[in-house]
Amino acid sequence: MDPVSVGLLAALAGGAGGELGRDAWAALSALVRRPFRRGGADEDGPAAGSGEAELARLAQNPADQSIAQALSTTLAVRAALDAEFRAVLAAWQDQVQRIPLDDRAVHNTISGGTQHGPALQGRDFSNLTFTMAAPRSDRPGGSDRGGQGGTAG
């Protein structure tokens, strides 16, 4: 089983993915809180190495990559020791792969025709001002009116 991505854990802890991301984080939290079965015996309370401590710390500080790495490692060790946990964690990973976590993704396309003037590509622009000179005509006589009149003087 592949380890859970550090980036994925940090993104989910930070609220990425909207409602689906929050649901995925809640599902992981519930999974980590399940009884830890080592050799078939249940452990009472949060077992050392269960992942609960790392999960709580990451929820408090989602930008800390070292905490996300510690949680990923703990989940991998627990999965190696607990076959039931491994199966449920693998199913959880399959589900979260479909969640678009990059809420800030931008996909811009300009196609067809000729664009005159600035073309801004990005996201969440505000308070922009464009100052442009009038377009220059490529027509003989310098007119943009289809040859109907001369140049202003």
Please outline what is shown here.
42% of the residues lie in helices and 3% in strands.
Number of helices: 5
**Mean pLDDT rating:** 79
Which overall shape is indicated by the principal axes computed on the Cα atoms?
A: elongated
Rg: 28 Å
DSSP strand (E) fraction? under 5%
- Stretches where pLDDT is under 50 for at least 5 consecutive residues are 40-46
Indicate the structural class. mainly alpha
Strand order across the biggest sheet?
A: 1-2
Number of strands: 2
First and last CA, distance = 77 Å
Helix content range:
40-55%
Largest sheet, strands/sense/barrel: 2 strands, antiparallel
SSE sequence, one letter per element = HHEEHHH
Description of the structure:
With 153 residues, this protein is mainly alpha-helical. It has a domain at 6-96. 42% of the residues lie in helices and 3% in strands. It contains 5 helices and 2 strands. The protein has helices at residues 6-13, 18-33, 52-60, 65-81, 83-96, and strands at 37-38, 41-42. It has a two-stranded antiparallel sheet. It is elongated, with a radius of gyration of 28 Å. Mean pLDDT is 79; it is low at 40-46.
Please tag this protein with its features.
single chain; two-stranded antiparallel sheet; 153 residues; 2 strands; 5 helices
Topology:
Blueprint: H1 6-13, H2 18-33, E1 37-38, E2 41-42, H3 52-60, H4 65-81, H5 83-96
Helix pairs in contact: 1-2, 1-4, 2-5, 3-4, 4-5
